């Protein structure tokens, strides 16, 4: 598939050192639209959607936002903590708005799975279906994320 | 056949070159806006070459609006009021502006192109903002992820700031980072030392600037700094004070205490420093030492995540439950908070419940 000028611009913004130190694509050799399309297939097979995943992530981030420096326990199984540092990040897709530098860490005590995400991760999943490339520091494998959030 | 192809290529190249030439001429003469006037606050007028952004035009004239993204329209911090001129609000600005701001003529200066005379209103304090060339004088390791870096000013040689204000530090390209990046940090030194500023910087995962500071910056390196910015500063009153900080939020409070040591005060002050664990505490001896400097000062570090086995005899949990012992006259108490928004929200709620007026709670929430 041919790359549009808009895609080229987005991919340029996802490179290491532009918005974040190591970028959003990691060592993934697939094209951006392939990464998004293949993750969308996984969501479809799981019977979920990017908005359902994003809503659940937002729920955990919100629930732990004011419990700074200490994890909160939600719905018995989930140990969640959100750390916030100074500053905000723009969306590499040039979507409007800025996203606080938050880091939410969730540990599912029932199945032992731990995942972490940022405010920007939630936005990119909800609006762009983008879970980041394989090897990216904040890549969220959709299957693992689903298991962590819903089981 | 080959000659014909060569001819066609030459003709195509010729036409392209001609069109490029026409385009350059059009750019030069049709987009020539000439010299435009920027009227600032109705008090000062500066002449600039038209065609550039308002942000860049002001920067060229040493008027520095805050900007974290270098004018790329992605941070939304370079707001100013455009009274007249400036053209219509662009779609790139709207996401950053509230309906009140839009109706009050607030614009993103990086998105406003100067095509004719323009009148703007900006806070007077902006005129005190300068770009400084500075050299790294000292780097101290405060914790495993927090450093204190002192910069000595080279040109201009002195900086005037209020305690609690911040500066913007410009990184140089390094490793995978091919462009300069600008990030804001609170000043942690006292304003009486005009030839230097100290910043307290925590290493942020994936942070472009903090990684540069922690892993690449060396004593003797030259950097660019702009500032001072911000309206989080110590009010000159006689009210009691509650300071609350966490992590690198200690920076502005340190500056305030160092300043008060110089100017002198008899105000009742309590400083709560929230940290996770013993390893997150720093400058502890220095802060306790202020209990001997001031008439009525108490330093209260509180650990939220300290295991029962850890070597800690001090307070545990959140800072809020300890406020009631420190606040004697809530109506006559000011609070200065610096830390994560979660901490600011929780602490503000706690202070209000004890009767501290909302308009006396000042904070810097890592914005």
| Count of discrete structural domains of chain B | 3
Care to count the β-strands of chain A? 4
For the terminal residues of chain A, how far apart are their CA atoms? 37 Å
Largest interface: A-B, 31 and 41 residues
Name the strands of the widest sheet of chain B in spatial order: 9-8-11-6-7-10
Runs of chain A in which pLDDT lies below 50 for 5 or more consecutive residues are: none
Unreliable parts of chain B:
none
Strand content of chain A: 15-25%
Helix content of chain A: 25-40%
The count of helical stretches of chain A stands at 5
Number of strands of chain B: 17
- How many separate helices of chain B? 8
H-E order of chain A:
HHHEEEEHH
What structural class do you assign from the helix and strand content of chain B? alpha/beta
What's the assembly state of these chains?
A: heterodimer
Integer-rounded radius of gyration of chain A: 15 Å
- Cα Rg of chain B: 26 Å
3D architecture notes:
The complex is a heterodimer of chains A (151) and B (367). In chain A, 39% of the residues lie in helices and 21% in strands. With 151 residues, chain A is an alpha+beta fold. Chain A has one domain (5-150). Chain A has a four-stranded antiparallel beta sheet with strand order 1-2-3-4. In chain A, strand 3 (98-108) and strand 4 form a beta hairpin. The longest helix of chain A is centred in the middle third of the chain and has 16 residues, at 50-65. In chain B, the strands form three sheets. Chain B has a six-stranded antiparallel beta sheet. Chain B is 25% helix and 29% strand. Chain B has helices at residues 2-30, 54-60, 99-103, 208-215, 250-263, 284-293, 323-326, 341-353; strands spanning 35-40, 44-49, 79-84, 106-108, 118-121, 130-141, 146-155, 166-170, 182-186, 196-202, 222-229, 240-246, 269-275, 297-303, 315-316, 333-338, 361-364. Chain B has three domains: 35-126, Beta-grasp domain (Ubiquitin-like (UB roll), Roll), CATH 3.10.20; 129-229, Translation factors (Elongation Factor Tu (Ef-tu), domain 3, Beta Barrel); 240-363, Rossmann fold. Chain B starts with a helix and ends with a strand. Classes of the chains: A alpha+beta (151), B alpha/beta (367). Chains A and B meet through strand 2 and strand 3 of A and strand 9 and helix 8 of B.
